[in-house]
TrEMBL record:
GO biological process: carbohydrate metabolic process; fungal-type cell wall organization
Main location, first listed in the record: membrane
PROSITE patterns in the cross-refs: CHIT_BIND_I_1 (PS00026), GH16_2 (PS51762)
Segment forming the signal sequence: 1-21
A Gene Ontology molecular function term of the record: glycosyltransferase activity
Reactions performed catalytically: Random endo-hydrolysis of N-acetyl-beta-D-glucosaminide (1->4)-beta-linkages in chitin and chitodextrins
Protein name: Crh-like protein
Catalytic EC class: hydrolase
Topological relation to the membrane, as annotated: Lipid-anchor; GPI-anchor
Gene Ontology CC terms, in alphabetical order: fungal-type cell wall; side of membrane
Active site: E161 (nucleophile), E165 (proton donor)
Keywords: Cell wall biogenesis/degradation, Glycoprotein, Glycosidase, Glycosyltransferase, GPI-anchor, Hydrolase, Lipoprotein, Membrane, Signal, Transferase
């Protein structure tokens, strides 16, 4: 719970100076009806706020969030960037995109590089399809250096989470972890050690997620097993076991930013050095060669009433509140929401940035001033000048050098500094550590003009 509060504080601190204060949500604070969707970063909006990461329990209503595309068994070889769509363009059509990106992914030698240039907060790819139990493996080499975190995780809209994480100063180990509903538990993490240099070498990391057990493996060797039975929490009267549909997320992010909490920086191995020999062409990078997803059948007793999408029937977000439906997953525009998926501009001849009112609406989590795009059809219009980030990937060292909005996403506590830490005292140090905050990705669009 403290973690959630901190998410919001952290984001406020990062985003508030740049924009009008965004409405925050989380921990039982719901979004208002006009910006009904609570993003995974704890802010309210429409459009992309209602897609992947939208938290039904803290949104205006359970159906504010758009239904989530069901699991699809597939191997992604990253031979090019074709399946990767910027979060400023994705409207929920998982048949046209495999991954939604923030930051700067680059294609290199048949793999995708997640890059992190100076003064950016790295790159995140989130799968468009969710997984509700399945075997997910990824072949990659990590980045390296103090403060630099590489991650391969499963993350639910409920904030159930299953992790492989890599700290750039520990090149012979992988950290495994899990969370239930985003509740911090310091005893959940374990280290798999004795690996050959994870930066120099590609390894295959696998998460085998079943209703009763989770198995983490590296190069075919089991390094950890978690039984659901061992996670019973008598206080909450439920298993603290990841049990709700999750997206696969690949990321490279700076745990070691001066603005992060001391505990986060320490966990990350110190401050990020922006002149590190581990940087190439001006950026840190992690190399993802392949990801493979093998979906399992829905658990016995699952609430099945279709084949296309997952929804929640209750805020408790247990396995038994998940329903498989035929509900539509695609929004018509960045002004739409789960309860009005066809909302958009009335006139198709709207001027470049739409009406003044709608351009004030938060449409892309963390990306400030993005507005809904031309005619609310950002997703269909690659020439929209307010688009930013990975659509214009150039390989340049500075993601912000293009002159469009600079999009860095902040992971870690994102500079909650004074307000976060002061309120929670010493405890916040550890609260801010670790993979819980790999989730707190805030795209901060700085209008450089
Ligand atoms: C894993 O390794 C990190 C870094 O050395 C350390 O901080 C952490 O306590 C270790 N975790 C466990 C469970 O041993
Ligand atoms: C059990 O659940 C309670 C209430 O959600 C939570 O505060 C506590 O941290 C949980 N305990 C463990 C060990 O996860
Ligand atoms: C949900 O989990 C419970 C254990 O907490 C199990 O008994 C039940 O079969 C599961 N239901 C589904 C639909 O997975
Ligand atoms: C199943 O889905 C249909 C629409 O696809 C809906 O009308 C019906 O109420 C649903 N049934 C249940 C039990 O949810
Ligand atoms: C959906 O939004 C449009 C405006 O974009 C509006 O005209 C329409 O009435 C809305 N529908 C509902 C059911 O609210
Ligand atoms: C896309 O952008 C161009 C130029 O900005 C504009 O002329 C066109 O109408 C836009 N298309 C849509 C679908 O908004």
């Amino acid at each position: 719970m403290a973690g959630r509060v901190l998410h919001s504080l952290a984001l406020l601190a990062v985003v508030a100076p740049a924009v009008l204060a965004a409405t925050t949500c989380g921990g039982g604070t719901l979004c208002p009806s006009d910006t009904p969707c609570c993003s995974q970063y704890g802010q309210c909006g429409v459009g992309a706020y209602c897609l992947g990461g939208c938290d039904p329990a803290n949104s205006f209503s359970l159906d504010s969030c758009v239904p989530a595309p069901v699991c699809q068994s597939k191997t992604y070889s990253f031979d090019n960037l074709d399946g990767i769509v910027a979060n400023t363009k994705y409207l929920g059509d998982s048949s046209k995109a495999d991954w939604v990106s923030s930051g700067t992914p680059l294609s290199y030698n048949g793999a995708v590089l997640l890059t992190m240039a100076q003064d950016t907060v790295g790159t995140l790819l989130a799968s468009t399809h969710y997984v509700w139990y399945g075997k997910v493996s990824a072949k990659f080499s990590t980045s390296a250096g103090a403060g630099v975190i590489t991650a391969f995780i499963l993350l639910g809209d409920s904030k159930d989470e299953i992790d492989f994480e890599f700290v750039g100063v520990e090149l012979e180990s992988a950290q495994t972890n899990f969370y239930s509903l985003g509740i911090t538990n310091y005893n959940n993490g374990e280290n798999a050690t004795g690996l050959s240099d994870v930066h120099e070498n590609m390894h295959e990391y696998e998460i085998d997620w079943q209703p009763d057990t989770i198995t983490w493996s590296i190069d075919g060797k089991v390094v950890r097993t978690l039984d659901r039975e061992s996670t019973w929490n008598a206080t909450s009267n439920r298993y603290s076991y990841p049990q709700t549909p999750a997206r696969v997320q690949l990321s490279l992010w700076p745990g070691g930013l001066a603005s992060n909490g001391e505990g986060t920086i320490e966990w990350a191995g110190g401050l990020v050095q922006w002149d590190s020999p581990y940087m190439t062409n001006g950026y840190y990078y992690a190399t993802f060669d392949e990801v493979s997803i093998e979906c399992y059948d829905p658990p016995s007793g699952a609430n099945v009433n279709g084949t296309k999408s997952y929804i929640y029937t209750d805020k408790s977000m247990t396995n038994s509140t998940v329903e498989i439906t035929n509900d539509n997953t695609i929004l018509k525009s960045f002004l739409a929401t789960g309860t009005n998926m066809s909302a958009g501009y009335a006139s198709s001849s709207a001027s470049a940035s739409g009406t003044a009112k709608s351009s004030d609406v938060a449409t892309i989590p963390g990306l400030t001033g993005a507005g809904p795009g031309t005619n609310g059809q950002r997703g269909d219009n690659s020439s929209d000048s307010s688009d930013s980030a990975s659509s214009s990937v150039s390989g340049s060292a500075t993601a912000s050098a293009t002159g469009s909005a600079s999009t860095g996403f902040v992971q870690g506590d994102g500079g909650s500094g004074s307000n976060g830490a002061a309120q929670y005292g010493g405890n916040s140090e550890s609260v801010l550590r670790g993979s819980l905050f790999a989730v707190v990705v805030a795209l901060v669009g700085l209008c450089i003009m």
